[in-house]
Design a protein that fits this description.
Elements: H1 26-30, H2 69-76, H3 93-101, E1 105-107, E2 119-121, H4 125-135, H5 164-172, H6 198-208, H7 211-217, H8 234-245, H9 255-270, H10 289-298, H11 312-319, E3 321-329, E4 335-337, E5 341-343, E6 346-349, H12 359-364, E7 368-370, E8 385-393, E9 397-403, E10 405-407, E11 413-415, E12 425-427, E13 444-455, E14 460-468, E15 471-476, E16 479-480, E17 498-506
Parallel strand pairs: 6-9
Antiparallel strand pairs: 1-2, 3-4, 3-5, 3-8, 7-8, 9-17, 10-11, 12-13, 13-14, 13-17, 14-15, 15-16
Helix pairs in contact: 6-10, 8-9
């Protein structure tokens, strides 16, 4: 552009573009240079000629004579973004097309002070990005957290894992403390005065080392809610035993007080009708520990509030496994559902369906069974049904009996001594009917005690292994072993002793 161009309104200059015939040289094909040569479009170009455009400065503005200067004033004064002053820039349509075909430019790294800020040609955008990465490579730092401090924490989708009935049962015992009141004490022995009451002492050890039960039974007689229907009742005897077994903070445990409380318990429970070993004829005969435990729990409450030692809804929330039977026809799929039933102990038959299975296979049979072909379907009138015990809600304390009694073809009873490995954790979620409650971990329990038996059907000895604040302790009547490791609790067989009654407590672990 000539320096003496005619002045235009508002200090703008008119630029004329003319075509000139000129052969393209090899050097000219490499880049479009800034030059003042113009060419006339009226001349006939030769076959190997190509028009070249004159580069203008960034502050120059181009518009056609036919355009209204006022209408184009805004768009021609817009400054290009990130444009380097040494790089050609075109404001007309043809020049912009040529601009896109030019070799891109990148700035020299600022670390080189001699040529910092200058532009160098780069063959492609990919090459340009590669050069940038080579100048400043990425540094990978091993992660020490699942989420970095600058990264927004991912919100977990909250899924309800409780029903209204479960919420109601949890609410009834939400005031009970699940921790031991004396973390400095361990288990203590209970004297067997008759020599045959080992089944009672083992059951008491299981209950006295369940903190939530101890804290619950200590409330007996403290308010109208826990009123005592009769002085010297079964709940009174258990409360007095719990108070001396786990005395108040700062008080010393007395062996004499514990012994008096045990005698008072035997006296109170023997007065109840149909108590195992309570009559004179059975007083010196050994009884089944499972039967005695169920009898004890059932007599702690009653459907009649005036006769109940403890609230029935709280007892069922603590020990009651609530389920309802559902019968399904194998032919048409018709289902019949019965009323819910509350079980205090889950019975696991170690011979059903057959010998030699693992604990999970036997435990499943408590919830699933094939009925004999005598029931007729109400819909298709065919025989053949399966029955499933659908869990409505699990208790806070789950007791599992390993049934070790079997009958042969002649009706003779014998003891099953097969070692069966039981788990430390037990999950009931798969036995629920509600889909949202079938997620693993929603109904998880942890083993806290094992009642074991050695001997035969008619005689033998019961002992208990419990988890106390001191650790795993093995207790045989008044003798208490030193605390051991968790593996002591999980032994499927120890000498002549085999596990008979397992106690699990609900956990969130």
């Amino acid at each position: 552009m000539s320096s003496n161009a005619h002045a235009l309104p508002e200090a703008r200059r008119k630029i004329s573009i003319k075509f000139k015939k000129e052969p393209i040289t090899k050097a000219g094909a490499t880049a479009i240079k800034q030059t003042s040569n113009v060419f006339d479009a009226s001349e006939d170009p030769e076959p190997i000629t190509k028009p070249r455009l004159k580069a203008i400065e960034q502050n120059d503005n181009i518009f056609d004579d036919s355009e209204d200067p006022a209408s184009t004033d805004k768009q021609h004064h817009a400054s290009p973004v990130n444009h380097h002053p040494n790089q050609p820039f075109y404001l007309d349509a043809i020049g912009a097309s040529v601009q896109r075909l030019e070799i891109p430019y990148v700035s020299v790294a600022a670390s080189d002070p001699t040529v910092a800020g200058e532009l160098i040609p780069c063959k492609s955008s990919a090459k340009r990005k590669l050069d940038d990465m080579l100048r400043a490579p990425l540094l990978f730092v091993p992660a020490t957290r699942a989420t970095m401090a600058t990264e927004p924490a991912r919100k977990r989708r909250r899924i309800s894992t409780k029903t209204e009935e479960q919420d109601e049962r949890r609410h009834t015992i939400s005031h009970l403390n699940t921790e031991s009141s004396r973390a400095d004490l361990g288990a203590t022995g209970l004297a067997n005065h008759t020599g045959v009451h080992c089944y009672r002492r083992s059951c008491l050890q299981l209950l006295m080392n369940l903190p939530i039960f101890v804290n619950w039974i200590k409330l007996h007689g403290t308010s109208q809610r826990y009123h005592c229907p009769k002085f010297g009742c079964l709940a009174c005897a258990l409360r007095d035993l719990a108070n001396v077994y786990w005395p108040a903070e700062g008080d010393r445990r007395s062996a004499q007080r514990v012994d008096r409380a045990v005698r008072a318990f035997d006296s109170a429970i023997n007065k109840l009708p149909r108590c195992p070993g309570g009559s004179r004829a059975e007083h010196l005969r050994q009884q089944d520990a499972h039967e005695f435990m169920v009898f004890l729990l059932q007599n702690l409450s009653s459907s009649d509030p005036s006769k109940a030692c403890m609230p029935l809804n709280e007892l069922e929330a603590l020990f009651g496994l609530k389920r309802f039977p559902r019968r399904t026809c194998r032919s048409c799929g018709h289902q019949e559902t019965q009323d819910p039933v509350v079980w205090m102990v889950a019975n696991v038959n170690l011979r059903h369906p057959r010998k030699g299975l693992d604990f999970k296979s036997y435990f499943d049979q408590f919830f699933y069974e094939t009925l004999p072909p005598t029931i007729v379907c109400e819909q298709c009138r065919k025989k053949g049904h399966d029955r499933k015990q659908v869990v409505v809600d699990g208790p806070e304390i789950l007791m599992v009996q390993l049934v070790r009694f079997a009958f042969d073809a002649y009706g003779r009873q014998s003891k099953i001594k097969d070692p069966v490995q039981f788990p430390l954790y037990l999950d009931l979620s798969e036995y629920f009917d509600d889909k949202k409650l079938q997620r693993p971990g929603t109904q998880r329990y942890k083993l806290t005690s094992v009642l074991q038996h050695a001997g035969s059907i008619g005689s033998g000895h019961y002992t208990a292994k419990v988890v106390s604040p001191k650790g795993i302790q093995d207790i045989s009547d008044e003798h208490v072993e030193a605390p051991g490791a968790i593996k002591e609790l999980l032994r499927p067989q120890e000498g002549g002793f085999t596990p008979y009654l397992l106690t699990y407590v609900r956990t969130s672990e």
